[in-house]
Structure formats: C-alpha cells, structure tokens
Amino acid sequence: MLAIVKSCALVGVDAVEIDVEVDVQRGMPAISLVGLPSGAVKESKDRVRSAIRNCGLRFPSERRVTVNLAPADLRKEGPAYDLPIAVGVLAASGQIPLDVLEGALILGELSLDGSVRHVRGVSAAAYLAHSLGYERIFVPEGDAPEASIIPDIEIVPVGHLIALVEHLLDLDCIPALDRDSVTLEDNQPGYPTDFADVKGQEHVKRALEVAAAGGHNVLMVGPPGAGKTLLARAVPGILPALSLDEMLEITRIHSVADILPEDVPLVRHRPFRSPHHTISQAGLIGGGSVPGPGEVSIAHRGVLFLDELPEFGRTLEVLRQPMEDKFVTISRASGTMRFPSNFMLIAASNPCPCGYYGDGMTACTCSSTMITRYRQKLSGPLLDRIDIHVEVPRVDYDKLADTRRGEPSETIRERVQAARDRQMARFSGSSLLCNADMGPRRVQEVVTLDEAGSALMRSAMQQMNLSARAYHRVLKLSRTIADLEGIGQIQTHHLAEALQYRSRAQ
Ligand SMILES: [Zn+2]
C-alpha cells in the first residue's frame, strides 16, 4: 500500500514542498530510501524503525518498505523527515488512516523512544505551508512558538509519535497551539550596550552615528583597551527599529542557522556578530557540506564586527561579493542557493602590530617595516567598501571617572531614523536604500555642491591628493551628514566633517 505525506526541505533560507511517499509491498524484507537523500537522512531509517517499535507499534520488517522523497532532484538534508516517514510507514502498513493529514504539512526529528525533537527552519516551513494554502502544520512541540510568527495557519505541536498516532486515530486529539499563549513582545531585553554608558570618545560616537545614518561601513583604528568593541556593540541600538517583515526575515535565517534561542520565537533586535579572526571562509560567508548561512547572513540587517581586521588575512577576500550584492550565492551540484547578507561592517584594527603606535602613553616597539607591512594587510578591495575611517585613542582618566551619562542611544536613533527617512524619500522607486549604496554616477546626480563647496573640494583634492574614489566617498558622506541635519544643500561644514573620515592611506 502506498501512503503520501506532505513535508518540506530547506533550500537556503526557504522551505520547499516535499512528498514523502512510502510503499509497503510483499518481497524481500528491506527498507530502502530513494530520492537524493544525504547521509544524515539515511540514518532516518534506523531512528524511524526504533521509534515505531518503542511506541508499541509494528514496523513491517517482514515486507519491502520503499521511501521516496520527491522531487528527486532536490538534495534532502537533516532529520526533519523522520516524523513524516514514520507516519507514512504506519499508514502504508494499515495501522493509521491518513485522511486527518489532508491539508497538513508535517516535520520533525524522532528520537529512538519516539519523542519528537526540534528541527531547523520551522518558520520557513510555516511560511511555505501558509503560502501554499495548507490549513495546518504539525511541528515539534518546542518549535511551535516559532511557527506561530506566521499568521493564519493552524499549528499543531507534536511532542511524541504516540500522541500524533492517537490524534490520527481520533482517540486523543492534540489541541492546536493557542497563539495567545505565545509572547512575541517583551520577551527580550533591549540592546545590551547603550551609547550613554560609553565614556568619552565623542568624535567616534559621532562617526558611528553618521555611519548608521547613511549605512556606511566603518574602520576604527586604535590601541587595545580604547573601547572599540564596546563602541561597535552599541551600534545596533542606534540603527532604525526593525519592521515586522525584517524581524521575520532575520528569524528565518537564525532558525535555519539553528541559533534561535528556545524562548525567542521572533528576533526583534538587530543582530550583532563578532566572529574571531580564525574563522574559515565557509564560516564567514556560509557553505559547508550542508550549505547553511555564514556570519554575514546571520548579521543580516545588523552589524558584522571584525576585530583585529588584519589578522583575518585572506579570509576577507570572500567578503567582496556579499558586500557588493547584499546576498551570498552558494552553488552545489544539486542547485544554487542564496542567503541574504545586507549588513553594516564595523572593522577594528590596532595601528601597528604591538598596538601602541601614536599612543603617547605606551611606547610602540614596532619597526617601520613591520608597521608598513601590517597596514598593507589592510589595503585592497575591502577598504574600498569602508567609507569611514576613525581613530579611537585611549580615554584619559578624567573622562573615565566622569559619572555623568552621555546621550542615550534612543535619542541618537531618532536622528538616524529621520536621516534614513530622507534617504528613503530620495531613493523611492529605485533599489537603493541609503546613501552608502550610491555608485559614482548616482553620487554625481544626487550630490550637488554650491560655489563655496566646489572651491573647498577643489583645494582638498589638491592638498590632500584625493583619488577619484576618495572624492566620491567624501561627497556621499557629506550627503549623509547633511541628511542628519535635515538640510537639502550640502554646505562646507558637511564637507569638512566628511573629509576627516578619510583614510590616512588613501
Ligand atoms: Zn607598535
């Protein structure tokens, strides 16, 4: 007898519909799994067999059991098919009816005793089920709150295979998830670091506000202990509040990456990611044998902080494409998948290998060759994508001892939001979102200088020996600075501030 159960597979951060077909026939006793399953899915056979037996049900081992996952050209990964396969085997061997599963999608991993375990990508699965018109989705009990972020679909939390069998036999109905029982709001604290808690560094805070306002990437250069990490951590809290669509998008990525905390069904805050410099290229942009999102995608719509940037070495080469396209493409024999990667990059570096070049308090012990070589590690295509360079000196004792609080992140965020609103209006109808996205041609169209501004830029080009690229960068930044002030025409003081953010090397 043939049974078909509807389930889904993850491709990138999207779920796609899968038919789990189970056929139980007379013949050589065997169980075979077909339809391009990976090694991890093949282990399903053993888990399903044990779970069924340990639930006191019958596994038809005297027959030939064929499990086909269709479409066959899609590679299936992971343990999420255990539950649909088990249901299919029980139905195909005549132990349960399938009509109750009409209009339902089902997924879940089984442990050997039949309890149903957490799987990745449940919100993607619920989104798929909803968009394909399914009435309900059966998910692992612990994942039900995550599924509930998708509206208008009934969510059935399954804790144990036995409970599902009793539900299908109409013996004991599993109640659908009560959406009111799930708290989507106020279950997470706000951003952990507030600008008000950062002592001194007013010019760095200002540079980070400009960066947040225009979506610009930043490089902070300063000695150890200057507070670069603390400053970077505070940045997500001054970026505009997330829209619901953005929250759903981030949640889906974090669920697929399997980093969603158990008690957080919906990510409500911008991510902050700070991978160590020993990370692999696959870890940074995604990939691996089971392609999953990398740090650039987990940081989507938030901040990617790369401390000790020169130490990342050649790993950084892979950042170019995701930064350019704002998504990562990973190709496999089974197809191509995409992961979003629209993040703000904040990089930090010491000024030299020992860290104290130009410090004033601690003497630098590096030779000039060492310093040159160290800085050369920082040249190249990545630096081209960093609009703001800012020096972060150590804070002197008087400022550290000052107990007055600085300006809170919330106030800064309001200014950033207002500047972003102006950019949204400017770029409406185009794919651009913020000033940092503008290419040279767009800069020419959007940024016009008056006579005084042109004169200042002419002399800066000559005296500071600015390249064409640096020139465009200064114009983009001055546009953002003027947007923060709510002014249409760029003025000389906007340009003067933007000129301070250029790199010493460029
Ligand atoms: Zn040094």
Largest sheet: 5 strands, parallel
Unreliable stretches covering 5 or more consecutive residues? none
Indicate the proportion of strand residues.
15-25%
Mean pLDDT: 91
CATH architecture annotation name of the largest domain: 3-Layer(aba) Sandwich
Question: What is the C-level CATH assignment of the largest domain?
Answer: Alpha Beta
Number of helices: 20
For this structure, the CATH topology of the largest domain is: Rossmann fold
Strand order of the largest sheet: 11-14-17-10-18
How much helix, percentage-wise, in residues? 25-40%
* Rg over CA atoms: 28 Å
Based on DSSP secondary structure assignment, what is the total number of beta strands?
Answer: 18
Tell me the structural class. alpha/beta
Walk me through the structure.
By secondary structure, this protein is of the alpha/beta class. It folds into two domains: 2-181, Ribosomal Protein S5, domain 2; 195-407, P-loop containing nucleotide triphosphate hydrolases (Rossmann fold), CATH 3.40.50.300. Helix content is 35%, strand content 17%. It has helices spanning 39-42, 44-54, 82-92, 122-131, 144-147, 161-168, 202-214, 228-234, 244-256, 281-285, 295-298, 320-325, 368-376, 381-384, 397-401, 409-426, 440-446, 451-463, 468-485, 492-500; strands at 2-11, 14-25, 30-34, 64-70, 104-106, 109-110, 116-117, 136-140, 154-158, 218-221, 272-273, 286-287, 292-293, 303-306, 327-332, 335-340, 344-349, 388-391. A five-stranded parallel β-sheet has the order 11-14-17-10-18. A four-stranded mixed β-sheet has the order 1-2-4-3. Strand 12 (286-287) and strand 13 (292-293) form a beta hairpin. It is elongated. It starts with a strand and ends in a 6-residue tail after the last helix.
